[in-house]
Write a structure and sequence with these properties.
69 residues; mainly alpha; two-stranded antiparallel sheet; 2 strands; 57% helix; 9% strand
């Protein structure tokens, strides 16, 4: 399972979706889907822009959790 921590990071940085969209040049809907963990994929360029603006690492945003069998 992939867990997205974008909402937590954005809360800690006190930045909203509109601000992140403006700062990264990414579309608000795409950020909102990632924020709400409603996406089934993300481009490397998107992660790069978000990491640059939020001054974080990819592993801060995305976490891999092994499925229990």
């Amino acid at each position: 399972m992939i867990k997205v921590h974008l909402s937590r990071i954005m809360g800690e940085e006190r930045i909203n979706i509109a601000d992140l969209s403006r700062l990264t040049g990414l579309h608000r809907n795409g950020i909102a889907k990632l924020y709400n963990e409603e996406t089934d994929g993300v481009k490397f360029d998107t992660l790069n822009r978000i990491c640059e603006v939020l001054d974080c690492e990819i592993q801060d945003i995305i976490e891999f959790i092994k499925d229990e069998k």
